[in-house]
Amino acid sequence: MTQTPTKPAHHHGDLRNALIKAGISLLDEGGIAALTLRKCAARAGVSHAAPAHHFDGLAGLKSAVAQEAFRLFSRHMMDAANAEGPSPRDRLRGICRGYVQFGLTHRALLETMFGLDAESLLRERIDPGDSDAYQILRDTCAPFVPPDTQKEVIEFQVWSLVHGYTMLFVSGRLGCLHPKNLGDGPFDQVMALLDRIGDTSSS
Amino acid sequence: MTQTPTKPAHHHGDLRNALIKAGISLLDEGGIAALTLRKCAARAGVSHAAPAHHFDGLAGLKSAVAQEAFRLFSRHMMDAANAEGPSPRDRLRGICRGYVQFGLTHRALLETMFGLDAESLLRERIDPGDSDAYQILRDTCAPFVPPDTQKEVIEFQVWSLVHGYTMLFVSGRLGCLHPKNLGDGPFDQVMALLDRIGDTSSS
DNA sequence: GCTTGCAACTTTACAGTGTCAAGTTCGATG
DNA sequence: CATCGAACTTGACACTGTAAAGTTGCAAGC
Questions:
Q1: Which residues of chain A make contact with B161, given a CB cutoff of 8 A?
Q2: Nearest to A132, CA basis, from A84, A72, A85, A87
Q3: What integer pLDDT is reported at residue A39 of this predicted model?
Q4: What is residue A185's predicted lDDT score, i.e. its pLDDT?
Q5: In this structure, is the dihedral angle defined by the CA atoms of residues B89, A157, B108 and A169, taken in order, positive or negative?
Q6: Among the four residues A45, A68, B94, B138, which has the most C-beta atoms within 10 Å?
Q7: Crossing angle for the helix pair B151-170 and B132-141, nearest 10 degrees?
Q8: CB of B52 within 8 A of CB of B96?
Q9: Minimal CA separation from B29 to chain A, in Å
Q10: Gap from B47 CA to C22 C1', in Å?
Q11: Angle ∠(A149,A153,A156) on CA atoms, nearest 5
């Protein structure tokens, strides 16, 4: 045993990562309002001012949490793509499914990720276009690009569509559209449009 | 003159609307973090606890502000549609343009509108699908719907696409896509896909 | 081994926030 | 003119981010 167990330990060892991990838990459990410097500190077992030595205030913590969330997000979509099948079309469907699924499971995380302002993105050097997630999208979209079209056009159209659908769906905003009347499921609807994009060259 | 001008007036007359108006200004000026009960109260010239008699806490104020924002949003898109031209295709383009434009001008407003949770939507009876904005989208989309497709499918695909594009664009998230390399402008890209949707039946 | 320095963390303090309870004012209603 | 209640104020409390100053303990140099 240590000599005086009541005395506070002044060296955590891996506080930065512990705080980020605590932040993600808090977001998942209590929504966007639960992400608090003091709560993160408490959950990591340190005093309330300790995070200031690892992040630039609350904004800094949010950025770091978003950075880690993008990593989780990317891995989630990668798994979803791999689980779906080997063909590009199936992988693309998997990505769409993973996108929406991640949003439903971690909606506060998604809000933190895409709620960052441009400055925070720059400061933390977060560039979704350089992420694994977007690389998957890029690779999987490639076969769908018609020959007379810039591939970036398809990529950002697909991204916008899936992102918009996810955002609207996650926040319950598509209730007025009665998704249950729209076919076999939300993913088929997204895929229908993706197919339509790809069919431009074959018609 | 009144007898004692220093005495506080205990009846504002139209405090609820004044608070909502103050909230919208605060959002436009200082972003989402600037929307505060106390600041709204100060701007309306009342004490810090006065808003509690008109809204159910901060969440209630946010809902009311969002409700008004949806009204502004709807009118903005209506104007944009009318300014573009008489044909459905032009009107649809106008709506897309108005959507993005509103997002760029009032990004904090958009964040408040679409950041509401489902409970708040229900409590304030906010249903985007019943709004003028969505009615415009619905009417303007109608001519683009292929004969073998449910119209709701096209409507929600268009909405998802435009909403997603707006969200990504407004938060600077499309920077990695170098929009300047993508053609004549962002609106043309959205319209390209919209045209592609409509062309399904004609090919 | 001992000292020195410094990074990590704590403690204390302060302004701003939402929210509740109790008091005050004022207009309408009898 | 009295009264009653709605609209608003005042005061208080817990919680938040943030800054300043103090404390601890590891590690490098002698």
A1: 157, 160-161, 164
A2: A72
A3: 98
A4: 53
A5: positive
A6: B94
A7: 120
A8: no
A9: 15
A10: 15
A11: 155
CA torsion through residues B3, B7, B11, B12, sign: positive
> A111 and B114: CB-CB below 8 Å?
no
Q: Is the CB of residue B188 less than 8 Å away from at least one CB of chain A?
A: no
What is B8-54's CATH topology?
Arc Repressor Mutant, subunit A (1.10.10)
What pLDDT score does B105 carry?
Answer: 93
**Four-residue CA torsion sign, B138, B142, B143, B145:** positive
Contact A90, A55 (CB under 8 A): no
Q: What's A1-54's CATH class?
A: mainly alpha
Q: Are A197 and A161 in contact (CB under 8 A)?
A: no
**Residue B198 CB contacts under 8 Å (≥ 6 apart), including other chains:** B89, B143, B144, B146
Residues in chain A predicted with pLDDT less than 50, given as ranges, are 1-6, 178-179, 181-184, 200-203
Question: B117 vs A161: CB contact, 8 Å cut-off?
Answer: no
Residues 6 or more apart whose CB falls under 8 angstroms from that of A202 comprise none
Is-contact A111 B115, C-beta < 8 A? yes
Domain A62-198 annotated CATH 1.10.357.10: yes
Give the nucleotide at minimum CA-to-C1' distance from A45: C9
Which tokens go with A129? 């276009």
Q: Output the DSSP codes for A73-102.
A: HHHHHHHHHHHH-SSHHHHHHHHHHHHHHH
State residue A13's pLDDT score. Answer: 79
Cα–Cα distances in angstroms (integers) from residue B121 to residues A105, A154, B89, B93, B144, in the given order: 20, 33, 31, 28, 30
B12 touches strand D (CB under 7 A): yes
Q: How many CB pairs under 8 A join A and B?
A: 141
User: Any idea where the domains of chain A sit in the sequence?
Assistant: 1-54, 62-198
The pLDDT value given to residue A197: 61
Residue type, A198: G
b/e per residue B65-92 (b: at least 16 CB within 10 A): bbbbbbeebbebbbebbeebeeebbebb
Q: A15: which 2 tokens? A: 């506080």
- The amino acid that residue B27 corresponds to is L
Any idea which fold B57-198 has? Tetracycline Repressor; domain 2 (1.10.357)
